[in-house]
């Protein structure tokens, strides 16, 4: 029995369609309803309907965007679109995407019945209850994406052209250009961007570009690194490549702005004449895209623009982030967020070279890394990464909004760590260490371990501990362990090996040596109460 998912943001309309289909007494089964494209995608994953009946205009993900994503992820699922009289241009776009038909709102019951009867006959003819062909297509797409990703990273060579044929990649012409597209984050509100899974924007953009590309060129579009969409375009006429790409990207940007209300920026690399050179074209496209930081997005950026921009230099002194440093150390999160935004914005406005912008931000972050080291909060701040990876990531951003968000997150996290450290320092760090040793003497304890717990550097903690306790941390720890060992030797029958292990010593030889140094007796002699070198024998009081 074929199944239907109804997608419309108006409850009355959804319920009305469901009732019409139920009254039809056909084989069609309405398995669920969805309020918009985002809700539909969640349900499609679980329910795998045979047909989607969707409205065009909806919040979050509309009907056009939904079709792009379904076409990529679930090619075996058919779509029928509904639209008002004024939305006919969107209905035409849906038909171009492969929609089975469209229904003009408000439609009559007979129109719906006629359409579903026709689709049911097609479904029975094609015998589509088993979805294996769709799954096979998904596997093929995944393999193709893997090969395409290998091309831009330089891992596929001329002698491996057969590999391309095996996954359906055909590049008959001599020249291949790499085009990278990225969503301009400042063209999408935070609420809209984070309300959805950001990867859905990439899927929509990928399919949109692929559809536009297929009209004029031979090429392949795929998602690389979640938010980066890459197109490999095969050209017959090398002399007109730049003009052709400018015309193509202008058309894509215009249409996507009108249909989905956001903008894209493209980076274009120089044409490659063999498979080995594709990775160079990809790197050039990525470098060109970085200049979005300097001149803004919603345009095509290429090598020619990069060359012109590099000729321009500005006299500008290094940014002063004294106030940002002060707010971080004071734990003032609100002002840290504001100052980080101002700092990055100022950099992007006054420098014409993105490399220098990245360098300045990395210098700033290294300063705060040094502060984190001195305060012993690096582990709490960076969690499961390290400062090297943080700096590498900074160089991957080509959007001022993304750089601002990243710096706000990093410095905000550091501010919180410092604030937590200050709260914990209300109790003397030495008191915390003493209490910890008394409770955990049997465990492996080092000065570095204790320094992390009290948010101090090891060298500073060592100095502070000695000034407060009158002895070094190591001597204090050893003394506590020996005191416990003495008690166990006198008041228990445990073997010396067991006592050694239970008081935190690494091995029995080390235990024997330390014990004798402190008490002038071996553990055995201490237990037996024997005198050594003229000393009085130990007596239990």
Quickly list its features.
541 residues, alpha/beta, five-stranded parallel sheet, five-stranded mixed sheet, 10 strands, DNA-binding
How would you describe this protein?
It contains 26 helices and ten strands. The chain is of the alpha/beta class and 541 residues long. Strands 2-1-3-4-5 form a five-stranded parallel sheet, sandwiched between helices. The radius of gyration is 34 Å and the shape is elongated. The termini are far apart. The model is unreliable at 311-319 and 531-541 (pLDDT under 50). The modification 4-aspartylphosphate is found at residue 55. Residues 3-120 form the Response regulatory domain. Residues 431-529 form the HTH araC/xylS-type domain. Keywords: DNA-binding, Phosphoprotein, Transcription, Transcription regulation. This is Regulator of RpoS.
List the helices and strands and how they pair.
Blueprint: E1 3-7, H1 11-24, E2 29-34, H2 37-47, E3 51-55, H3 63-73, E4 78-83, H4 88-96, E5 101-104, H5 109-126, H6 132-152, H7 161-166, E6 175-183, H8 190-195, H9 199-214, E7 218-224, E8 228-235, H10 241-260, E9 264-268, H11 278-290, H12 292-295, E10 300-302, H13 303-310, H14 322-330, H15 333-350, H16 354-374, H17 378-382, H18 387-394, H19 400-424, H20 429-440, H21 447-454, H22 458-469, H23 473-491, H24 496-502, H25 508-519, H26 523-528
Parallel strand pairs: 1-2, 1-3, 3-4, 4-5, 9-10
Antiparallel strand pairs: 6-8, 6-9, 7-8
Protein name: Regulator of RpoS
Organism: Paenibacillus allorhizoplanae
Keywords: DNA-binding, Phosphoprotein, Transcription, Transcription regulation
């Amino acid at each position: 029995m074929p199944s239907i998912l109804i997608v419309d943001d108006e409850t009355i309309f959804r319920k009305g369609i469901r009732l019409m289909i139920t009254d039809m007494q056909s084989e069609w089964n309405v398995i669920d309803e969805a309020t918009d494209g985002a809700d539909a995608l969640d349900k499609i994953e679980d329910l795998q309907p045979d047909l989607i009946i969707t409205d065009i205009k909806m919040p979050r993900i509309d009907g056009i965007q939904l079709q792009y994503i379904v076409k990529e992820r679930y090619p075996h699922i058919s779509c029928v679109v509904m639209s008002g009289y004024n939305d006919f241009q969107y209905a035409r776009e849906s038909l171009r995407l492969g929609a089975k038909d469209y229904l003009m709102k408000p439609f009559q019951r007979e129109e719906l019945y006629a359409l579903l009867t026709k689709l049911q006959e097609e479904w029975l003819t094609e015998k589509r209850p088993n979805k294996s062909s769709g799954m096979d297509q998904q596997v093929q797409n995944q393999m193709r994406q893997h090969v395409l990703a290998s091309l831009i990273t330089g891992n596929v060579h001329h002698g491996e052209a057969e590999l391309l044929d095996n996954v359906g990649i055909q590049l008959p012409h001599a020249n291949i250009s790499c085009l990278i597209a990225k969503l301009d984050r400042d063209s999408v509100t935070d609420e809209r961007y984070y309300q959805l899974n950001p990867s859905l924007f990439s899927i929509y953009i990928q399919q949109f570009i692929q559809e536009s590309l297929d009209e004029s060129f031979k090429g392949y579009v795929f998602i690389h690194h979640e938010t980066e969409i890459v197109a490999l375009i095969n050209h017959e006429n090398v002399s007109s490549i730049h003009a052709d790409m400018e015309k193509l990207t202008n058309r894509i940007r215009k249409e996507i702005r009108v249909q989905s209300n956001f903008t894209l920026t493209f980076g274009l690399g120089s044409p490659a004449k063999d498979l080995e050179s594709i990775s160079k074209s990809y790197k050039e496209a990525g470098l060109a895209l970085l200049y979005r930081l300097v001149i803004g997005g919603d345009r095509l950026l290429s090598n020619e623009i990069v060359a012109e921009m590099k000729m321009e230099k500005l006299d500008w002194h290094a940014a002063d982030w004294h106030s940002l440093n002060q707010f971080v150390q004071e734990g003032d999160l609100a002002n840290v967020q504001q100052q980080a935004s101002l700092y990055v914005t100022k950099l992007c406005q006054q420098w014409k070279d993105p490399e220098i912008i990245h360098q300045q931000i990395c210098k700033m972050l290294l300063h705060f890394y040094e502060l984190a080291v001195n305060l012993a909060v690096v582990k709490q701040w960076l969690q499961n990464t390290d400062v090297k990876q943080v700096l590498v990531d900074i160089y991957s951003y080509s959007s001022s909004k993304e750089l601002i968000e990243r710096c706000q997150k990093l410095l905000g996290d550091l501010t919180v760590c410092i604030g937590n450290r200050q709260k914990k320092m209300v109790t003397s760090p030495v008191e915390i260490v003493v209490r910890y040793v008394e409770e955990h003497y049997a465990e492996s304890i080092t000065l570095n371990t204790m320094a992390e717990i009290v948010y101090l550097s090891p060298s500073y903690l060592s100095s502070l501990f000695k000034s407060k306790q009158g002895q070094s941390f190591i001597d204090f720890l050893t003394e506590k362990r020996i005191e416990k060992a003495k008690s166990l030797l006198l008041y228990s029958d445990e073997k010396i090996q067991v006592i050694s292990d239970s008081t935190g010593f690494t091995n029995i030889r080390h235990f024997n040596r330390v014990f004798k140094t402190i008490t002038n007796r071996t553990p055995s002699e201490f237990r037996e109460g024997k005198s050594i070198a003229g000393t009085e024998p130990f007596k239990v009081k």
